[in-house]
Amino acid sequence: MNIRFFNAKIFKTKENHTFEIVNGQLWVRDNKIIYIGDGLDIQEVFDKGEDPIVWDREIDVEQNLLMPGFKNAHTHTAMTFLRSFADDLPLQSWLFDSVFPREGQLTPDDVYHLDILGIMEYLTSGITSNFDMYFFPPQNAQASVDCGFRTVQTSGLNDFGGDTALMEENYNICNSLGELSSFIIGFHAEYTTKKELMEDIAALAQKVKSPLFAHNSETESEVKDCIKRYGKTPTQMMDSLGMFEYGGGGYHCVYMSEEDIDIFKKRGLYAVTNPCSNLKLASGIAPVKRFLDEGIPMGIGTDGPASNNSLDFFKEMYLTATLAKVREKDAACVSADQVLYMATCDGAHCMGLDDCDRLEVGKKADLIMLDLQQPNMQPENNIIKNIVYAGSKQNVKMTMVNGKILYEDMKFNIGFDPKEVYAKANEIIGRMK
Amino acid sequence: MNIRFFNAKIFKTKENHTFEIVNGQLWVRDNKIIYIGDGLDIQEVFDKGEDPIVWDREIDVEQNLLMPGFKNAHTHTAMTFLRSFADDLPLQSWLFDSVFPREGQLTPDDVYHLDILGIMEYLTSGITSNFDMYFFPPQNAQASVDCGFRTVQTSGLNDFGGDTALMEENYNICNSLGELSSFIIGFHAEYTTKKELMEDIAALAQKVKSPLFAHNSETESEVKDCIKRYGKTPTQMMDSLGMFEYGGGGYHCVYMSEEDIDIFKKRGLYAVTNPCSNLKLASGIAPVKRFLDEGIPMGIGTDGPASNNSLDFFKEMYLTATLAKVREKDAACVSADQVLYMATCDGAHCMGLDDCDRLEVGKKADLIMLDLQQPNMQPENNIIKNIVYAGSKQNVKMTMVNGKILYEDMKFNIGFDPKEVYAKANEIIGRMK
Fold first, then answer.
1. For chain A: N or C, fewer Cβ within 10 A?
2. Residue A48 pLDDT > 70, yes or no?
3. Chain B interface, mutation test: which of A292, A318, A340, most B Cβ atoms within 10 Å?
């Protein structure tokens, strides 16, 4: 599809990690942005070798905002079936009595359909790609590809099933499903994985030269237990096994030692924060200000819908900024600009999606339109701060992935009927009760 | 208007502060609920003396949810003009350099228009009434009445202007504007109000037999300074002046002593929590679990849009539950049911709106329709938990106040053109820059 957006406010990312908003047009040809400007210098574009374009659609943005889609840098998408299934319970009983026994009953086909439900929710929230850890990565990746959604799969391998041979197979499958799907090496967490298996995983990451991600230092007890076991924190342990030879990072990163911070800096690792989940499971508040002060790049993730319980990036962005403020007792720390940089650029880099990080000629057209003509976005004192501190899913008018509009004015264009997706999710959990 | 809702899920409040969801019809005649049931016992209704009804509208709810509107139990609505005007600043500089100098320039007419912008945002979030403290209460109340929105005004009196004679005048005006407007005695806070003025305010509350509300123990330094001044906490000080003879309560209530808790229990005071504002201004996390354990009734408020920056009740409800969990390191504490009870019933009682607290025959028709056919509300494992933990403004299909639909399918029906409301808000802040 070739789409010309005009009469738009356009969100541009500057070199110093800040933003500016310009008025103009943005053109998408197939899956890429080919022009951003005032529309007056069109001849120049064609002089650079672009063919004349037949527009499939010309969209009047009505002075609303075009911006890069949000990158959900940690989630377990297909856990949609357990949303609100067993909340307000102590963590252990939630996990062992409610979650694990039902996850054990999931089929690859179940996961395919549950993933689609999650993708729909991502689209309503302006999320254009996810970094997904769950059972059956090839089925999750296929669901994404079939919807037109961009996914980066990783493995949740641990002692309770699977091995690195299967992970390598999944790595190869997910990396061969076309440009919407990729795979980065990962595993569940130190506390669920024996040392020997972690060594195998490190060897695989080195063999395929992949970054490596895992849950890391999500709870205080996880860190204490690891120190008891190995005399090392999870970060130190993973690093000592050679897991970060090609970079990577950690999900959650709530309880970090000075040495952990040093390892993240030395290895160029990403800290992915999951504020909603960390609150709801009573895990704690991550040291976001510290990461930023140290120059550690950060992504933001929703975590899975069973622990969150939504896949709402506006909630995550709001909390990334405001929880830091209350943690540090400093209303000035962690700005809206810093959070939007994580939500778009750093998140994309963390997921290996360097060509989806910003609105720029040549980048992939993973972008969203935010409705500024709603009361929560008025007055327009500062659009950046309005997005982070007052924005909501309701402001998402359109979500485009890889040049295709997948969601527009509350309607989905993913090739699946929402009612059937909902019915299937209810049937899957209904079967298990 | 007479409106018959059918094919609905209906949210009913039970005596033990929990809820059940039943299928059926809900009828509104003029401003009241006159029937809830399966529609099969209609004759019985008329046998009880109801006249036959000519329906103005019959609405197929399509198995979505009708529930009581949310009560915003603390806000400064007309601060919309300062939304995102000066964030990510230290509290003192935000207040003294940005907020106060501009508030001083507001006219009554400005406040009227800025209030309408806030009301529009309330409606998008399912809020059907507000407990509002700001300059010019009669103008704020008039804006509400003109929109058809329900408001409870209070005074923000302090040492920087006004007196109790003006407050009494405002009390009389706001209580005479019809059933959508009322006034409860209040003042800004101990830290902005001399003892002599607080004594006058206490005398006025006793004279008119009103409950009394004020900001209370929002920050640690506020409490420390009060103890230094009087040897008493703000709660103790206010109580010692006879301010709570007819009940009332406090806004924020983050730093509470044992004796404060005792006073709240003894006087039957309401603790109104404002979690978004408390995070964003780095004030702290309120002891919500403690209030609930002690049986202290609670309301939830957005605070003003300059400190929040939105007027989004879903964000507040989510944080009321989840901040308690992280504060107490207990994922099981403060349930979704408890939060919804605050958001609807306790909030209404706190504001003196006993006839707006639940869906029941004879109660005022302050109610909302939530769209359950969206991905964040599926599967329907538990609708109550879905609302609190996964709900968003996007799920609000309709907001009805006093029997009149003011917001439906993202369109407003308040007698004002949104574009003009936005333009006016931009003009007001533009004038001040």
1. C
2. no
3. A318
